[in-house]
Design brief:
It comes from Pterulicium gracile. With about 290 residues, this protein is an alpha+beta fold. The protein contains nine helices and ten strands.
Length: about 290
Amino acid sequence: MPSIPLAGSLYNLSGTSISNYRVSEPIGSGGYGVVYRGLDVLSPRKLYAIKCMVKADSGSRHSVFQERELTLQALVCDHPNIVHLHEILSDDHHIYAVMQYCEEGDLFSAIVDRQVYIHRDGLIKAAIVQLIDAVTYCHSLAIFHRDIKPENVMCASKGTRVFLGDFGLATTTPVSSDFCCGSRYYMSPECINDELRLTCYSLPESDLWSLGIILYNLVSMHNPWRFATTEDSNFSMFLHDPLYFRRTLRLSKEANQILHSIFALNPTDRICISDLRKQIVALPTFYMRD
């Protein structure tokens, strides 16, 4: 297996100790730094995910982002479907966020690699309802995630439990002019803003769009389109064919209606998140009945 590259000026922490945590192998990485598996030596059976970041210069833009990420996650991590932030440690050069460890990795791996959810209505419902509950809770506290995608959702208990994580792009501003923020496959058309020429857009509806893409991922194991613009042939076909999902995925009539209600081009026409939850709970099946 190839080694995970270390980000920034982080050195390899495997085999070292941070406070009462014994650091083992890296389990993820990104522009932010590296996540390691860590063992609490005061409670030897307790594992944590330790997110290690190079400490930004005081007063810099990056330091504002780091502080915001950890502050916002701390505000919402008491929810049962949000990755719990156990504690924050630091030294002269690094910040260590000690978080809940989820032994099954992220939702992307569960969907694509292990194929946990495909054609399993009960599991799909459980996963998406938990994510809806997590996002609803964030929104109730005026926290908007802006990067909802399977790689930022962790899994446990054979996929029956999911946890929203990575608040690196989260904000408390409900309306934003920060376009193309997040992961493009999961961005709403108004967030991409290639064709709409907007000056700002609403974040609750944009988060809802991202949830809709995850729902599509769960029922199909792939994305509905690469980019939500008319230059994307799949998105264009969706816009012009009300039965596009029925034909390509053999989805049930009810599931097709739910997806269309999420993917309304006008954000004000999208289903509200509480109604979405009700409709998914009441849904008999996501798939056509033979």
